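The following block was generated as part of the benchmark described in Methods. Ligand: oxa(dethia)-CoA.
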Amino acid sequence: MNAGIVGIGRYLPEKVVTNADLEKIMDTSDEWIRTRTGIEERRIADDNTKTSDMGLAAAQKAIEDAGITPEEIDLILVATVTPDLPFPSVACMLQERLGAKKAAAMDVSAACAGFMYGIVTAKQFVEAGVYKHVLVVGVEKLSKATDWNDRNTAVLFGDGAGAVIVGEVSENRGILSFELGADGTGAKHLYQDEYIIMNGREVFKFAVRQMGESCINVLEKAGLTKEDVDFLIPHQANIRIMEASRQRLELPVEKMSKTVHKYGNTSAASIPISLVEEIEAGKIKDDDIIVMVGFGGGLTWGAIAIRWGK
Ligand code: UT7
């Protein structure tokens, strides 16, 4: 049995905060942010919109897209580092609000790699034949974890949600290979105390190395080569990090998803949001080979190679 993605959805808050808006509240410049990160604007959720509200909106779309009912969901995995509360989990909140009466539910804490951890976990349950449909949500309200007086981090992040349904797909399609990893010795470079604290340079170096390696590793595990890749969906943290992965795979610019300029770094939400954008733009066709790759606080990383289609 092969597990793949059978439904997709996303949600982004309406409020746009541009680099020019940030120039007014901190010592930064549009020029610095664009050239160092590729970010032009980000979405910020209002005070009344919680992580669970954004996750719910994305999940509802993914369920509808999969053509299933909430009662058909067996497990809900929510990748987030910005849950509404320490507990209950956002996954339990969604279980109630969706009416997913049969579903088990838990959050996944792997920072920006959380969605990759979620999707790989979902794959195991589906391929073992124990669950038919797993809802995997990546959602963050990073604006509440951001120190708006710290220009080193405040310019980078945004809010949003993406969701997929992982279920059985036809032979040859679906998730072909994966890699997950962690290196707790790097925890000091990126963590949240009250607010997000980051050693940007160290995280940058780690990300460039690890993203490239993970892409190559999942291709090897799937018996594929760089030439087989039709599309790359990297975690949208910084265009310079993303470009390094693209170059490692020797892919042309148009074969890499780029949403970082519009949404900034939405952590666990960035890969599923980008996936939905590319599908809606008609850039991904059935049987395309896609590599998704993420990295984040922990430090953590994860990647999959997937042959698209149901
Ligand atoms: O999802 C995972 C989350 N984290 C990441 O992906 C972050 C990975 N790291 C990065 O993306 C980059 O390291 C940053 C974008 C955070 C920083 O870029 P950089 O090229 O590594 O710059 P830097 O940290 O070396 O800082 C260069 C200068 C510093 O000034 P001095 O010390 O050279 O005088 C900073 O103080 O830029 C200054 N700076 C800023 N200037 C204007 C830092 N932030 C800003 C800012 N506006 N917002």
